[in-house]
């Protein structure tokens, strides 16, 4: 009950701020204030609009918003999102391009489960669609999953990835972004030993904490300072009465959002101050850069407590992946068993979440792979977001990843549609 009260208190605070923003917007927008041309009313209305929108976004799952893409035939083809597998804690979805022949490149994009929805990779998906068939792991919000569905920890997550890879077949090319990189590496090793014919063709790991000790960041420092008991006491709560998952132990998305913002408080404070001033001057718009970014950034989801705690304990503190000691259902997963899956790592030189050195450690663990099957790339000047969704991704990293996929394609699929600029 204590955890539920804390969870509902956070939701009450969020809801109250949304209401206050709506009230300020409505109050300051009355036409009568036009008789008193004081800038206070415009600022109040602008503050209300920005505040209402910001707090409302926190409990809304964003839409993918990818309607169509141009194809090689010069036509725009509509996009249909189809669900191939729907499991309690996540789904495998396919961005089906209507009227387009199957592509030689098939990509499974493994989205992070770290507080944001899979739609955080919207621009990544959009940039890959003209040149590949794209599949994405769409993780569900833990607050909406009944307690009767059971637990979900990093071993369950790994087995979900194994099932998705097995379903998509051995010609799939897997790209894991950030948090899932170590577990995707483990899932590939699991298949290499249990079902070699189901292994993916290539594996690209982008900015993931394969070895968190390789380079310190604020994230890894926090993991070392706090004990598991302290962490469980401070951040784990029970879903409140408002949602289907009432009573489930979770790491709330709102708490994760607070930690995200605190890491760059000055930057976010300035962004919102500038947005309020722009709105008060009548210079704001519905789809400006601020709204596009924060509509996604502020939309957060809860993680199951067991997933969050096992990630911290086993990946960051225990270094089970980094030391090749990870187990699934009591059986060790040996990363050295990967012998034919080409592996590439991508890092950003300015990444303050997964610093350079953490992700490239995967290549050291792949002792069964020849050097010809290994590749790495360090993007100069790129931060964490930029290596999978920013200009660094679009202009530099994306072409390199597609070239890597093509270089390791089967002979029958070696000739593919040339990469188009995005």
Automatic annotation (TrEMBL):
Domain annotation PHB de-polymerase C-terminal: ranges: 207-408
Q: Which InterPro entries match?
A: AB_hydrolase_fold (IPR029058), PHA/PHB_synthase (IPR051321), PHB_depo_C (IPR009656), PHB_depoly_PhaZ (IPR010915)
- Pfam families of this UniProt entry? PHB_depo_C (PF06850)
Matches recorded under PANTHER family: BLR0908 PROTEIN (PTHR36837:SF4), POLY(3-HYDROXYALKANOATE) POLYMERASE SUBUNIT PHAC (PTHR36837)
Protein name (Swiss-Prot/TrEMBL): Poly(3-hydroxybutyrate) depolymerase
